[in-house]
Amino acid sequence: MGKALDIYRAVPAILLALVVLSGCGVQATQQSELPIVAVVELPVEARNTLRMIKTGGPFPYDRDGVIFKNYEKALPIHPKGYYREYTVKTPGLSHRGAKRIVCGPLPECYYTADHYKSFKRIQEQP
Q1: Distance (Å) of CA 71 to CA 25, 39, 44, 47, 91
Q2: CA–CA dist 103, 100 (Å, integer)
Q3: Catalytic positions, written as ranges
Q4: Beta strands at 120-123 and 36-38: parallel, antiparallel or unpaired
Q5: What integer pLDDT is reported at residue 21 of this predicted model?
Q6: Beta carbons of 120 and 38 less than 8 angstroms apart
Q7: SS (H, E, C) 20-69
Q8: Among 11, 20, 60, 126, which is most exposed with the fewest C-beta within 10 angstroms?
Q9: Residue 70 Rama label (left phi>0; alpha psi -120 to 50; beta)
Q10: Cα–Cα dist 68/122, whole Å
Q11: Phi, psi (rounded to 5 degrees) for 55
Q12: pTM (2 decimals)?
């Protein structure tokens, strides 16, 4: 009976540990939690990229249109393949730089100037 009693005493501590640990993971971002940027407020290069996305290209970089996997859960959670990423040219750089537009089904698009560390939801004009 002693061992059974020890198990029953341990259950509340185990449950408490599970509750605490479950809150320690990366939290998924909700679309409403992201800041908004109007299309007219985007850099001209981002507006050009957005225009190419809407017309289906052509795109200047081989990696444009690849699946964005959202590992950091910085965007709302969706199944793999939901998001695609596109490069925003940065004047003066000879490489792709850090700026991107990531889109789900149009018109759902997000802008990042810091290589996925932060995002702003792109707001189309009414």
Answers
A1: 13, 26, 28, 26, 28
A2: 10
A3: 85, 115
A4: parallel
A5: 38
A6: no
A7: HHHCCCCCCCCHHHCCEEEHHHCCHHHHHHHHHHHHCCCCCCCCCCEEEC
A8: 126
A9: left
A10: 17
A11: -100, 0
A12: 0.75
Give SS3 for 71. coil
Report phi then psi at 38, rounded to 5.
Answer: -75, 150
Domains located in the chain, CATH noted: 27-123 (3.10.450.30)
DSSP state of 9: H
In single-letter form, the type of residue at position 61 comes to Y
User: Would you state the structure tokens that stand for residue 118, as one six-digit string?
Assistant: 């932060």
How far from 38 is each of 41, 97, 105, CA to CA, in Å?
A: 5, 22, 18
pLDDT digits (tens, 9 = 90+) for 59-94: 999 999 999 999 999 999 999 999 999 999 999 998
